[in-house]
Each structure stands twice: as structure tokens, then as C-alpha cells.
Design brief:
By secondary structure, this protein is mostly helical. The protein has ten helices and two strands. It has a two-stranded antiparallel sheet. Helix 1 crosses helix 9, helix 3 packs parallel to helix 5 (169-199) and helix 3 packs parallel to helix 8 (241-267).
Length: 340
């Protein structure tokens, strides 16, 4: 009973900890899409395509994670044979899918860094090589998850496949830690390099700090990756089914947060033009509305009798009307890199 309570508790915690980050990432991705498609004049690049695919992978990962929550909550002592295999499958799937959903956006970030900062050729090749190598390792890790047991279904359904043979558990754990370490190194490298470049630019200190903060979410991703590495070690040894499910969901939490932080870091450079466009739109239409409201609300007084001379109050009103400042001209929104 205590194991079931722990599983229910971890599913509630995971749901509360992951969905808000995914929602924020989705909003930022929407802002980036609007900014790149409608506001910025420069053509779309490979980084935009990679980040768009990465967001789709992230949505799939979160949907399957929710499926793992629901399946885990349905586990009962009276029906373990039917409920545990489903929950175990979704937990294993979402943790292995994270190989792909975390590695791909880092390729997008790498291409984005190359496009914005234009590094020297050797550094450009190094960045792309690191990103491609990470994604190759991630694809291999995803494949290993579903080829390490014979039959494959035996790793999540031992009831129907009691004679399943698998590689030693440490093989998958060590490989996952290796990929996680490379992923963490990529996070911190992609945070330090932009900070060094921006600090040496000729701009105000305030703008330097704000730009560095914008590009340094990778430090947080690095921290989450390290925590995930520690969580992976909980799968070593011979944990029972409940411990496997609990540890798998715990690892999934850190996978999810790291994934969303990497995607957010990739989307943030295109967000400032979106807010500037919104600000310009509000200012322009507010000014136009104010001018129209003033002109339509002003009506000259009706005189009952022909005045003998000019009406001073009417003259003063006309003077105030003529002295109104002209509304500011509409501003054309010009594309930029989002770092200004």
C-alpha cells in the first residue's frame, strides 16, 4: 500500500512540475513562429525548421508522459497483470523518447548560434560536430531501449513473457549517463560561448547583461541534466517493479524540464521583436482612437439667436482643438536578429 501511495504521489508531483514548463515553452514557440513568419524580413533558416520539429517531439513526449501518469494511477493490487505492463511501457517509452526530444533542439540552438554570432570556421565545424554526434548517440540510445530484450515486450510485461532475456541493466544505464553527460556539456558550452562574445561587443553594460541572460538558460538546463544523471543511478541493482516505475517517472520529470528549458532558450531570441510589435500596435491604435474620439465628441454650440460679435468661449475651444498635437505616424516593423 505504501508503494502505491508513493506512485500516486510521484505522478501528481510530476504532473504539477512538468505541464507548466511545457505550456510556457509552447507560448514562447508561438511567439517565435509569429516573429519569424510575420515580423522579421530575413528568410527562415535551418534552425527554425529544427526547432519546430523539436517542439513537435516535445509535445509528443509530454502527451505520452501524461499517458504514463494515467496508467500508473490505474495500478491496483487486485489487477497487477493487466495494469503494470501498460504503465511500464509508457514510462519506458517516454524516458527513451527523451533521447530524441532533448538532443534535437540543441542542434537548433547550435545552428542559431552560428547564424547570430558567425564564429570562425573551425568553431562552426566544432559546434555542428558536437550537435550531430549528440543526436547520433541519442538515436542509438532510443534503439537500444527496444532491442536489449528478447522478446522486446518482456521488459515491460514479465507476466506474459517470463523467459525474457535482456542485456545487463548497467549497459543501458551507463550509456544513458554517457549521453546525459555529453548533453550537459553541450548545454553549458552553448551558454558560455554567447556570453563571451556578447561581453566583448561595443554596447552598454545593461544591454550586455540582458542579452547574456537571454542566451544563458543553458546553465539551468545543465543543472537539470546533472540531477538527471544522479537519478539514473537509482536504476542500478535489482529494483522491483514499483521502484522501476517510481524511478522512471522521477527521471522523466528532469528530462521534461531540461527539454523545455532547451526549447525556451532556442525560442527566446525571437521573442523581443514580438513584444516590440505588440507595443507599436497598441501605441499606434490607441493614439488613433484618441484622436477620433476627440473629433467626434466635439460639436459646436447651437446659438438660439444671432450673436452680435464673436463668441469668446467658442474661439477658445477652437484654439484648443487647433493646438492638439498630431498623432504619431505609424511605425513600420523592421526585422532584426532579436538581440538589439
Amino acid at each position: 500500500m505504501e508503494d502505491r501511495d508513493a506512485l500516486l504521489r510521484i505522478t501528481r508531483q510530476a504532473c504539477a512540475a512538468t505541464w507548466p514548463f511545457t505550456a510556457v515553452t509552447t507560448v514562447l514557440f508561438g511567439m517565435k513562429a509569429v516573429s519569424r513568419l510575420r515580423l522579421q524580413r530575413n528568410a527562415l533558416g535551418w534552425d527554425d525548421l529544427v526547432i519546430a520539429i523539436s517542439w513537435i517531439l516535445d509535445v509528443i513526449r509530454m502527451a505520452t508522459f501524461q499517458k504514463a501518469f494515467d496508467s500508473t494511477r490505474e495500478i491496483t493490487d487486485a489487477n497487477l497483470v493487466d495494469t503494470i505492463p501498460t504503465a511500464a511501457f509508457w514510462v519506458i517509452f517516454v524516458d527513451s523518447w527523451a533521447f530524441l526530444s532533448i538532443a534535437l533542439p540543441k542542434l537548433g540552438v547550435g545552428i542559431l548560434i552560428i547564424r547570430i554570432f558567425r564564429p570562425q570556421p573551425w568553431l562552426r565545424v566544432s559546434i555542428l560536430t558536437l550537435c550531430v554526434a549528440l543526436n547520433i548517440f541519442a538515436i542509438v540510445g532510443f534503439i537500444i531501449t527496444f532491442t536489449q530484450c528478447d522478446p522486446v515486450a518482456g521488459q515491460w510485461d514479465p507476466f506474459q513473457h517470463p523467459q525474457t532475456t535482456c542485456w545487463h541493466r548497467s549497459v543501458q544505464i551507463i550509456y544513458s549517463c554517457t549521453v546525459g553527460g555529453l548533453s550537459a556539456f553541450t548545454d553549458i558550452a552553448f551558454s558560455i560561448y554567447p556570453c563571451i562574445v556578447v561581453w566583448n561587443l561595443q554596447m552598454s553594460t545593461r544591454k550586455k547583461i540582458s542579452t547574456m541572460a537571454l542566451m544563458s538558460l543553458g546553465f539551468a538546463s545543465f543543472a537539470f541534466a546533472v540531477v538527471k544523471l544522479v537519478s539514473n543511478t537509482a536504476l542500478l541493482g535489482e529494483p522491483d517493479v514499483n521502484e522501476l516505475l517510481y524511478s522512471g517517472i522521477d527521471i522523466g520529470i528532469w528530462n521534461s524540464i531540461e527539454n523545455d528549458f532547451v526549447l525556451s532558450a532556442a525560442c527566446l531570441p525571437s521573442v523581443p521583436p514580438f513584444f516590440r510589435a505588440c507595443k507599436d500596435f497598441v501605441q499606434t491604435h490607441t493614439s488613433t482612437f484618441s484622436r477620433k474620439s476627440y473629433s467626434t465628441s466635439f460639436t459646436p454650440p447651437k446659438a438660439l439667436n444671432e450673436p452680435k460679435g464673436p463668441d469668446d468661449s467658442w474661439a477658445r475651444e477652437l484654439a484648443r482643438y487647433d493646438e492638439l498635437p498630431e498623432p504619431p505616424p505609424s511605425k513600420n516593423i523592421k526585422g532584426n536578429t532579436g538581440l538589439e
